[in-house]
Every structure is written in C-alpha cells, then in structure tokens.
Amino acid sequence: MSEILKQQIERITPLTNNEFDYILSHFTTKKLKKHQFLIQENDLVQNDHFVTKGLLKAYYINQEGKEHIMQFGMEDWWITDYQAYFNQNKATLNIDCVEAAEVLCLSLHNREKLCADMHKIEHFFRKKSNAGYVALQRRILSLLNSNAKERYEQLLRQYPTLFQRVPKSLIASYLGVSRETLSRLSS
Amino acid sequence: MSEILKQQIERITPLTNNEFDYILSHFTTKKLKKHQFLIQENDLVQNDHFVTKGLLKAYYINQEGKEHIMQFGMEDWWITDYQAYFNQNKATLNIDCVEAAEVLCLSLHNREKLCADMHKIEHFFRKKSNAGYVALQRRILSLLNSNAKERYEQLLRQYPTLFQRVPKSLIASYLGVSRETLSRLSS
C-alpha cells in the first residue's frame, strides 16, 4: 500500500529503496471503517494522513449545525485539519470516512525531523504545499465568482472519479450550493 | 528596504549577513506608481514579489467585467499570480498598486536555485507555504459559511491596518459581498 506514496514522492524527486524505507519508518498505519472518525472537533491533531485506500471528508459544522466540506481525501491525497496540525491547536474540523479507509500517519515531529534530515523531503513537501496553495486559490476564485454551474463543471473536470464515489449531497456541501441547485445542474 | 525580508526569514531560520547577501543577490528591485500594473492578464509571470513598501491588489476580472480580489500585498507580504508563476503559465490575474509600491522580485529559476543551494531557504519557503495554505483554508471556510458579518469581522481582526489603507469597495470585493452590505456592516 505504501508504493503509491513512493510514486508520489518520486514524481518530484528520485529515491533509493533505502531512503524510502527510512521515510516510511516515520509513518504509522491506521485502518478505519465506513463512517468512523479520523479526527473530531476539539481533538488534538497529531498527524497528517496520506490515504492509501478509501475516501474521507474533512468538514466544518457551523453554529446552525450545517456541514461545510473543506476537502475530500482519496488514494494518493493527503488529509488532516492543517490549521490544527501545523499550529498544534485543537481541531475545528471533523474528518470521517465516506468509504472504509487506510491511511499512513505522519506526526508533525516526524515530518520536521524528516525535512531536517533529508533536504529532498523538504523539497518534496515544499512542492506539494505550493501545488496545494494554487489549488486553494483556484477554489477561492470559483467561490467568489459564485456561478454554481461553472463551479460544478470545474470540479467534474478536475476530479471525475470523485463524482462516482461521493453522494450528491456532499458535492453540494463542498461547492457551497444547495442540494436542489446541484440536482438541477447535474440532471 | 531589504531589512524586512531578512527579518521575515529570521523569524523562521537564523542567517549570517553573508548568507543574506547571497540570498538578496537573487532578487531584483522594482518601483511602481499608484495604479501601475505589476502583472496584467495574459502576461508571462516571471516573478514572485516581496513587498517592501506600499500596497497592491491581485484580482480576477470575470466575463461580466466584475473584479474579484484574490489577495492584497503590503509591507512584509508576498504577492504574485501563483498559479501562473509556479506552473509558468500566462496570468489569469491582474496585479496593480493601490498605493505606490516597491517590491523585491524573485524569478522561479532563482527561487529553485536558492532552495537547492541552501537547505534553510527551502525550509523557509516550505514554512511560508504551509502558513499560506492554512490562511487560504480559513478563507474558504469563511466563504462557505457565507455570513457577511462574520467574514468582515474576521478580516478586521486579522488585518486591522489593511482597513485604514484600502477603500471599502475593495474590501467588499475581497469578501465577496456587495458594497451596500459592507456599508451596513461597517457603519
């Protein structure tokens, strides 16, 4: 299962098997059932998670009890409450499993240790963070431009497989549109 | 003027004067007048920009001619069209000066060279990118949660000095609310 992590790193920087084994020794593994929580609001967030199997969602519940989806996580994606993880604060997000999942867990301590030990891993995480930053800017623009149809089509283009795995209600919550609007768009 | 860049880097990692001189030798400087463009849509984006003086805005103009502000940039902030810069694509954003400005320009080539040469600079940029990622996630949540009053108060708390320097119409465009809504909130 860890092979997809190696492949992801090697799309940015080459690794020997020994180097990868060393990197992997800093991760722990976790298996979760469908609907099981990986993180709950107010938890201390110890780990970032690389998904090797399954599908998770990270979401915020507002004062009226409404869910807003911050991100999905499926195979080859990373997911956690980054604000809480990087700042070692309590979680404001919840993360649970849309499908049963397996994840590789990386503590902030081990992440910083790996980055200090291996320049190429610091390089890998910088590149991943830059790409993530650009993806979030694109999402902000799509939220500001607030044309539900365009938002829907953009998501469909970017992540076609997500649509086959995630209920419509969750897509609507990610896009910030009502279930009814989404039904109209996708019919 | 470059002293604030040194201070920013040293909040993350200590530097000798020689190291900072070496880093600084990879930047060029640019002075801009009020309303002058730093980047226009469809430009090739060669540089990231560290603001040493003044105030800029990066914005997208939609098909109806409406402006959406992606970010502001003032002293000690970085600003560019990151999607275009990191992917070496043409700009989809415009960046111009709300106030006359001075910036330090870093090409992608020089950024990558610095990061390869100096592990501590790769570390600095990774940490900055992580912090930027978290700030964008917070903004997405505030857009999804779409309570204009909370969004306004959050921005006021985060960046109090911005409000004294930026016209209300631009704050409204950043928050994704109408000018009228903002006037009601801030009166």
TrEMBL record, chains A, B:
Entry-linked InterPro entries: cNMP-bd_dom, cNMP-bd_dom_sf, RmlC-like_jellyroll
Sequence ranges assigned to domain Cyclic nucleotide-binding in this UniProt record: 30-116
Taxonomic superkingdom: Bacteria
Cited SUPFAM superfamilies: cAMP-binding domain-like
Protein name, UniProt field: cAMP-binding domain of CRP or a regulatory subunit of cAMP-dependent protein kinases
